[in-house]
Write a structure and sequence with these properties.
single chain; alpha/beta; Rossmann fold; 6 helices
């Protein structure tokens, strides 16, 4: 184990919700997400070159929403209070459907035959999925984490990975949030005490090292 170098035999790359619904719904969304997607591509290329296994955690909601949590909260992800908490305007299953184009992994990060597809139903990619079992079986003790949203799936997955005794490397510019302040708070103040927070270029150097 090394602080500045990643062992490809014990490291996995985990993408969280890199799906059409969050990148390719409009030209404007593609423009906004392009720098972040480009960085994900760079990390993926480095991982493949080093034979680091790749895992894609993706939402897998039923069309009728019967497997989605509909819980009370004060605000939406934007931080704005609900106008009517009894009729929240956003439900995950209205955006991403299992078996639909919306839940497909973006073509820029096209999975290969030997990659792992982790169908998930909550924010935490470990919760009631085979992610941990698949990592342990391969002798993985470290995950590189990319995707979005920073304060939702990335945070939830990072907390669980930490409590499951995995080392975590979070790629700061290969993660994204619709709220830049939330993103920066997590990257600068919260994630550093549970993980190594690094840029794309730094992670590539760690993999090559």
């Amino acid at each position: 184990m090394s602080y500045n170098v990643l062992d490809p035999q014990k490291t996995a790359l985990v993408f969280f919700d890199m799906l059409n619904a969050y990148v390719h719904t409009s030209k404007e969304q593609e423009r906004i997400t392009k720098p972040f997607v480009d960085n994900c591509q760079k990390v993926l290329s480095a991982a493949r070159s080093a034979n680091v296994p790749v895992y894609y955690a993706r939402a897998d909601h039923r069309h009728d929403g019967k497997d989605s949590a509909n819980l009370y909260s004060d605000t939406g992800i934007s931080g704005e209070p609900w106008s009517d908490p009894e009729e929240k305007p956003f439900k995950p299953y209205l955006l991403v459907y299992a078996g639909d184009w919306s839940s497909e992994i973006i073509p820029e990060l096209q999975p290969r035959q030997n990659d792992y597809i982790i169908a998930k139903h909550r924010w935490n990619a470990f919760f009631q999925t085979h992610l941990e079992l698949s990592l342990r079986t391969r002798g993985i003790d470290t995950i590189i984490l990319c995707g979005g949203a920073t304060e939702v799936g990335i945070a939830s997955t990072a907390y669980c990975a930490r409590d499951s005794d995995f080392n975590i490397v979070i790629v700061s510019d290969a993660c994204r949030s619709g709220n830049q302040d939330n993103h920066e708070q997590f990257m600068n103040r919260i994630f550093p005490f549970m993980a190594r927070v690094r840029t794309t270029d730094q992670v590539i150097a760690m993999v090559k090292g």
